[in-house]
Amino acid sequence: MKKEYSLAHLTAISTTPLELAKIAANCGYDYVSIRQIYMGVANEVPVNLAEDKKMYQEIKALFKDTGLKLLDIELARILDGVDLTKYEEAFEIGKSLGAKHVLSSIWTDNKEYGIEKFAELCDLAKKYDLTVELEAVPIAGVKSFAEVADILRTIKKDNAGLMMDTHHFNRANDSVELLKTFPSEWFRYAQICDAPLAPPERDKMIEIMRGGRDYLGEGLIDVASILNAMPVVPYSIELPNSRKVEEYDYEGHARKCLETAKKYCDTFVTGR
User: Fold this and answer.
1) What is the average pLDDT across 203-218?
2) Using CB atoms within 10 A as the burial measure, which of 52, 65, 96, 134 is most buried?
């Protein structure tokens, strides 16, 4: 089965959506994963494609000319007091550009509230024929993929799924054997990277997560065992590394990300 790859925005966080799409097209990616919902993290460029009509049209033209596709809409977080309707504009724009999925994560410690709002998010996304993939994040309210599975079983939404991130899976200490028990239909795409061993300090973990991940095969995560416990899906390369960007620039880094991912996955990954 042919493997497809997307360039995640965190890999080249200081680029605009148009710049990221151009880099993805130049490097030969199948998809691009644009962060359309501003999060305010360091070096992130705030762009609203609903307001920037010129950039929107340029991205649309680039997709038509190159065959590059938009994979997902990032990132619809569930926070305390969240107004989910504020995500609708991004859903509408993303869908018009061909997006299929919405990436979400839960950042509240109020478990009942988080589940309720995630279920509402799935209903909202369904209006746009979008699926919603829930990601566990080691510094968020929902930290493990075992928790994600419990939420999916609780809400029973047919457009809800699980977004596997190899970095976050490793940090959560979830088991590959547990991953093998999850239904295949939960998996629609995954985020991949390698990384050093998880440091005990939270600050150090965030530092690696935001700017110190490794090319596949160059870190200490057993990426193959994770990806072989799930079906083959499009792989979004989320691999921020400030040192490599300084060495290669964003396009060079993105190209190296794709080259190393293809080599690794073609050698070691067959899927479930």
Assistant:
1) 94
2) 134
In this model, does residue 255 exceed pLDDT 90?
yes
Strand ranges, E, within the chain: 5-8, 31-35, 69-78, 101-106, 131-134, 160-162, 164-165, 190-192, 235-237
Our CA angle for 178, 114, 37, nearest 5°, is 100
Which of 140, 160, 144 is closest to 152 using CA atoms? 160
What pLDDT, in 10s, does the model give residues 83-100? 999 999 999 999 999 999
Q: Which residues pair with 102 in a beta bridge?
A: 73, 132
CATH of the domain at 103: 3.20.20.150
In the numeric block, which tokens belong to residue 233? 């899906």
Which of left, alpha, beta for 182 (phi over 0: left; psi -120 to 50: alpha)? beta
Count of domains for the chain = 1
pLDDT digits (tens, 9 = 90+) for 160-210: 999 999 999 999 989 999 999 999 999 999 999 999 988 888 899 899 999
Long-range contacts of 108-111 (CB under 8 A, 24+ apart): 108/78, 108/79, 108/80, 108/141, 109/141, 110/80, 110/141, 111/141
Please give the residue range of the domain that contains residue 155.
Answer: 5-268
- CA neighbor of 138 nearest in space, from 107, 104, 112: 107
Full-prediction pTM beyond 0.90?
Answer: yes
For 213: left if phi > 0, alpha if psi spans -120 to 50, otherwise beta; the answer is beta
